[in-house]
Amino acid sequence: KVIVTGALGQIGSELVTAMRKQYGADNVLATDIRHIDHPVTQEGPFEVLDVMDGERMAALAKGHGADTMIHLAALLSATAEANPLLAWNLNMGGLMNALEVSKEQNMQFFTPSSIGAFGPSTPKDGTPQDTIQRPTTMYGVNKVSGELLGDYYFHKFGLDTRGLRFPGLISYEVLPGGGTTDYAVDIYYKAIEEGAYTSFINKGTYMDMMYMPDAIQAIIDLMEADPTKLVHRNSFNVTAMSMEPEMVAAEIRKHIPTFELSYHVDPIRQGIAESWPNSIDASAAKQEWGFNPTYSLETMTVDMLEKLKVKLGK
Ligand code: VAH
């Protein structure tokens, strides 16, 4: 039985649906800071939860009889950079509550890290699983702290904590909120809506990306992995592709030949992007629990454009 925080977010909205299909709807309690009409709130148990309220989190987990905590509620990189103190309090306060509740109720624990956990002094190409992590963003500080806390609760209390350093995630269900990699989602929406996109990330800026179905499968595969095989825990590098805006545009033009890409670089998010790796190495995830992404830039583009045409009624 699973409890999910941030269940209405970009990852949560799809993970809840997938887990309800796999484990039974009633076994997955979705929570988020507010209620909206959505399959996540309509197709299984849902409760309003502010992750800063540890008491209510503990009560909801206990009432549900949860044995697994999926903690997704957080502010993403650009939002965190604009509100660093709020980001520290929410990202770390929420995480500590989720770790403490999981420890008290002996739950298996998952929370995402990010390529944002790396910084300018990290090797940018083929970024190793174990390497220097001195991020220069508040989000990155949150993610490195989160990784260290996850390993601490594992070594100190035996809590079964596991995590993934996600690249930019691309999906058509729920928009990411306030991320740096969001250009790679926006570009597909605008390609359908306007046939053109003005990117806030500059050409030639490489970042790791992955299609959401692969991210969801990676969470489920990691959580079901044989713990005796895990050398690492918080958190595994995972990625499916390394790309920059021109590459996405070229792929879109195979379907919309007149698609135009222009640039209006946002110095804040460009700065964040340039502090992150170009391409990380996911071999530890592949070796320790069989990580195996299935979508490439080409097949992701076909699926994104197809699904968005329907979603946007074009
Ligand atoms: C962000 N989408 O842009 C998130 C993610 C690696 C990127 O952490 O902040």
UniProtKB/TrEMBL annotation:
<feature type="domain" description="NAD-dependent epimerase/dehydratase">
    <location>
        <begin position="2"/>
        <end position="225"/>
    </location>
</feature>
<dbReference type="GO" id="GO:0008743">
    <property type="term" value="F:L-threonine 3-dehydrogenase activity"/>
</dbReference>
<dbReference type="InterPro" id="IPR051225">
    <property type="entry name" value="NAD(P)_epim/dehydratase"/>
</dbReference>
<protein>
    <submittedName>
        <fullName>L-threonine 3-dehydrogenase</fullName>
    </submittedName>
</protein>
<comment type="similarity">
    <text>Belongs to the NAD(P)-dependent epimerase/dehydratase family.</text>
</comment>
<dbReference type="InterPro" id="IPR036291">
    <property type="entry name" value="NAD(P)-bd_dom_sf"/>
</dbReference>
<dbReference type="Pfam" id="PF01370">
    <property type="entry name" value="Epimerase"/>
</dbReference>
<dbReference type="GO" id="GO:0006567">
    <property type="term" value="P:L-threonine catabolic process"/>
</dbReference>
<dbReference type="InterPro" id="IPR001509">
    <property type="entry name" value="Epimerase_deHydtase"/>
</dbReference>
